[in-house]
Amino acid sequence: MTINIYRHCLMGVLRREFSRFWQQRNRFATAVIRPVLWLFVFATGFGVTAENNTAESLDAVASYKAYLVPGLCGMVILFNSMQCALSMAYDRELGSMRALLVSPLPRPFLLSAKLFAICTVSMMQVFVFLAIATLAGTGPSWLGYLASMPTMIMTGFMLGAAGLLIATWIKQLENFAGVMNFVIFPVFFLSSALYPLAPMRDASPWLYWACQINPFTHAVEAIRRSFSLQWDPLTFGITAGTAVFLAVLATTSFRPQRTRILPGPGT
Amino acid sequence: MQLDVESLSHRYGPTQALTRIHLRVKPGQFHALLGRNGAGKTTLFGLLTRLLHIQSGDIRFDGISLTHHAAEVMKKLGVVFQQNALDLDLSVDQNLHYHAALHGLSRGVARARIDSELARFDLSSHQHRLVRTLNAGHRRRIELARALIHKPSFLLLDEPTAGLDAESRHLLVRHVHELCSEQAITVLWATHLFDEIHPDDNVFILDNGQLLKEGPARTLIPAYKEQVLGLIPKHGGTTV
Asked: What is the model's pTM?
């Protein structure tokens, strides 16, 4: 098969993901409104409750908002990845995934194309959120945008691959709601997205170490540093390494017969 | 394109779904796979389309092993599943373009083939409608159009008339028989409705996961429909 066949397939999968995304515009609104609420409601409330309404506390709110933005970028990517995983589980239950699986192209390639599409949609959402944050004066500089691109894309691949892995391993859609709760909330709250880890070390060592072993923490830290035009090989390396590991696992371990792609025995 | 199935068996845990199936589907002919619900038809289709892993036995298309040369085989297969395989939230056009892309066709080639298939099935006016808004008969025709876009030489249809009214069933059966005779596409059509089969078609009778008999419909159906398959009239068709 020529490279063009793969290219046409990749573009087709990408176009389909965009078309679906366009059909579900409320999903896009939700994806943007969620972090905006966190940024303008939670961050303000959290900052003000910490201090009296003094000039210092207002500064603290502003700096907490700036602190929160990288974590919220991670949140946008995390939610979109899990949303795409859910949509893939629906595709499987409703039958449209069978069209993908009878393609002559190798399944690892098809799933990688799907992953690429998920990541691209995540990037669209995250940069719309960043534009809003910048307009509100809490986003990164233009250079920060550019510098964060590689980290952001790598985070998209890491979380997209995690979603793909969950969607390909889960047997029934009913189980998926549980997985969402057991994945999204622990991954987000057991990270440095909302609070810095250093003060936590003494207050709650187990929480500190739980956050440390969470790759999402390192993705958020890598994004945070890239906003300040800093390069941290450790956090970026952990994010990239996890992305590659999960992507290989997700694209090579998929077995249709393990899922309910066909009716059960006796058919 | 010829299909050879050799000693094919399949289990779902303790349940034996297929037992040592041997069959040969000759090129350019219409073949019906007849069997009651639960006879093993969908399992056989799952194995033929790689949705199920071959546990024992072999499947070869024109002598090429499906296990070892899946890509080469799959690009020549057109598949219509028993259940809907269209994306309900996309338009007819978007669904067909997606399928074309999954077979590596460029946008230009896909456009021409989509237009031609939609015209063949009298669906051109529905091109931009969401699949969700179409009735079951139209959806099945779109599934058939989709299965033909990459110009397959072998068409696998698993109970494609399920849920259709009598007129839509008749239309679909006629379309596929025409495809078979005019374009020499080999067809394997799984059904439990014997009135979908023409007297000249070749029939495989599957029962309890075993291949019971093979032969021309005009001799096999009268001999077996009551003895083995039962005869229960069902809305829109007669069940074997």
From this structure: 0.84
